[in-house]
Amino acid sequence: MRYAGLLRAVNVGKRQVPMARLRALLEELGFTAVATLMASGNVVFSTDRTDVAALEEELAAVIEAEFGFPVPVLVRSADDLDRVIADNPFPEALEVEPKFLHVAFASEAVPVDAYRDIDRSVFEPDDLAVGTHEVYIWYADGAGRSKLSVDVPATKGIAFTARNWNTVLKLRDLLSEP
Question: For 109-144, how does the pLDDT look when each residue is reduced to its tens digit (9 = 90+)?
Fold first, then answer.
């Protein structure tokens, strides 16, 4: 099976995880066809193991042991990313600028009503929508000018790591490769 590992908050400040070392580390664990995408904590790999929670725990433990700081890791399959892509609640964002649409992948299922109490007028024209294990965030004019932070989803006690739409598509493409 082929998976994408999404590392949270690496290669910012002192939390450096060199991608070449990350690839080698996964290969040492027996994973195959290991590849990284950009230097922001995206790694794809193949394994015959299917317990995603165990993969997340093992990768997080090995990365912390190697680099000396905790790194939450979320693992997603090609089917997971296909669903995320198909369920996009903001198709109009793709016509404006795909990189302005972000997906905040969650460590657990996101309750449908998790953000019902948020005053969306505060960050208009930006918006967010709940998926099953993710929150879609549309920065209508770009993330740099937004009042909507990717930290908004985290305020509900669920760990997230966000990727822009172009990165989601590239990860899905990498999962298609042998």
Answer: 888 887 788 888 888 899 999 999 999 999 988 888
CA separation for the pair 107, 159 (Å, rounded):
5
Q: Is 125 exposed, middle or buried (0-12, 13-18, 19+ CB in 10 A)?
A: exposed
Query: How many angstroms separate the CA atoms of 163 and 42, rounded?
Result: 9
Looking at residue 37, the DSSP 8-state letter turns out to be E
> Which residues are bridge partners to 162 per DSSP?
104
Structure tokens, 142: 């770009």
pTM: 0.90
Query: Are the beta carbons of 7 and 159 closer than 8 angstroms?
Result: no
Distance (Å, rounded) from C-alpha 5 to C-alpha 105?
A: 11
Side by side, the strands of the sheet bearing 127-130 are: 127-130, 134-138, 101-106, 160-164
In the numeric block, the tokens 């040492």 are attached to 28
